[in-house]
Amino acid sequence: MSDRKFLIAILLMLMVFSVQAQGEFTSQPRHGQYSLVAYVSGGLGYFSSDKGVPAYLQTSVTKLSPVTSVRIMWFPDHLLKMGLETGYVTFYSYNITDSAGGKGKVSLNAVPILLVWSMSITKNFNIFAGSGAYILNTQLDYKEKVISKKFSVGWVAAASYIYPLGKNTGLGLEGKWLYAAETSNGSLCTQLQFVWKFLKW
Predict the structure, then answer these.
(1) What does the alpha-carbon distance between residue 22 and residue 31 come to, in Å, rounded to a whole number?
(2) 178-181 CB contacts, 8 Å cutoff, 24+ apart
(3) Cβ–Cβ under 8 Å, residues 29 and 79
(4) CA 135/CA 186 separation, integer angstroms
(5) What's the CA dihedral at 150, 152, 155, 156 to 10 degrees?
(6) 143-173 pLDDT, tens digit each
(7) % the chain with pLDDT above 70
């Protein structure tokens, strides 16, 4: 078989699998069926505010930072779902240089613990909203290392599209807003996610 025919055969098989998968994996409820679904996500967040950055020092601010999250949702046999979300987000970090040329770095990180509600708009498109707590962690590395922890209330809002891979798995793209009350504008995030329906009854 030539390489061209082999490639065409592979593409046809993938198309058939894709059509079958889209008919199997769905976030729409089925009467009498319950499940637990895990969302494991990673991507980048953008922090739009300059709050907390000292104006009297030379600073180099990093506003794009990695964001990871894990969400476990309970899918009942109706549209409204609920679950818990946690993860790790760096809101911002910046390097500083004082008048004597001394250098340092400050970063604000957080671990969210959020109660999340979700609803399916279509079988593959979902919206999320929730509230809870953010455990904030400020790290200063300037002549010596100092770590400060603080508790903050906060929120999350997100929308995701899930492309089905099989009966119980899918790949998603999610846009998310993570907001802790102590951080002014919060972080706008884009994440790729692996979705796994790991328990059904």
Answers:
(1) 19
(2) 178/45, 178/67, 178/89, 178/110, 178/112, 178/154, 179/154, 179/155, 180/91, 180/110, 180/112, 180/134, 180/136, 180/152, 180/153, 180/154, 181/152, 181/153, 181/154
(3) yes
(4) 14
(5) 0
(6) 778 888 899 999 999 999 999 998 899 999 9
(7) 76
**What's the CA gap between 84 and 76, in Å, rounded?**
15
The encoded tokens of residue 14 equal 């993938």
DSSP states of 175-199: EEEEEEGGGTT-EEEEEEEEEEEEE
CB 197 within 8 A of CB 81: no
Token pair of 24, please? 């199997």
Alpha-carbon Rg of the chain, whole angstroms? Answer: 21
Structural tokens at position 108: 């604000």
pLDDT digits (tens, 9 = 90+) for 15-33: 444 444 444 567 766 777 8
CA distance 94 to 96: 6
Q: Which residue has the tokens 């946690």?
A: 86
CA distance 42 to 49: 22
**Sign of dihedral through CA atoms 8, 9, 14, 15?**
positive
Are 157 and 132 in contact by the 8 Å Cβ rule? The answer is no
Tokens of 66: 């990695």
